[in-house]
Specification:
The mean pLDDT is about 80. The chain is mainly alpha-helical and about 150 residues long. It contains 4 helices and 2 strands. The protein is globular, with a radius of gyration of 18 Å. About 70% of the residues lie in helices and about 5% in strands.
């Protein structure tokens, strides 16, 4: 059932693998932030276009940040090609710190820090899941490169 899922690849041919690839981490972080900005923009547009008086966007914003961490982990894992869980952890941590600093600047204080610690842990977990999924997506993509439907 789990034969083809790669969790850890420590080394490769020709020597020790680089553990962290900065380009993969930056790309994952950019995807996470861009997807969050897109979701927030869609919610603002929804509030402008509809005639409601009260909007409860808390759950949607939480889901949007979790989706951002997941997408960032997928992109970093796919770009890195190995050690997707580690890239996902780094992207989740950096994304959580960016979100924490944004909320602290918005509120003017770190008063909600204990409540945000649980959300930061969830962002790291989503980044790890995305990193593992991204590494395995790139493995399946390499196998499909030679596949040409209709040509035999």
């Amino acid at each position: 059932m789990f034969r083809r899922i790669t969790l850890v690849s420590w080394s490769r041919r020709g020597g020790q693998a680089n553990l962290l690839k900065p380009g993969a981490i930056i790309g994952g972080l950019l995807w996470a932030l861009t997807s969050t900005v897109f979701i927030c923009s869609a919610l603002v547009l929804w509030a402008i276009m509809t005639a409601g008086q009260v909007y409860h966007f808390g759950a949607l914003l939480t889901a949007g940040t979790m989706l951002g961490a997941l997408l960032g982990g997928v992109v970093s894992g796919r770009t890195a090609g190995n050690m997707g869980w580690l890239h996902g952890v780094v992207v989740g941590l950096l994304y959580g710190l960016v979100m924490l600093s944004f909320l602290a600047a918005w509120n003017g204080t770190f008063a909600a820090l204990p409540g945000l610690a649980g959300r930061g842990l969830a962002l790291v977990v989503m980044g790890v899941l995305g990193g593992v999924a991204g590494v395995n997506m790139s493995a399946y993509g390499r196998r499909r490169d030679n596949f040409r439907p209709g040509l035999r």
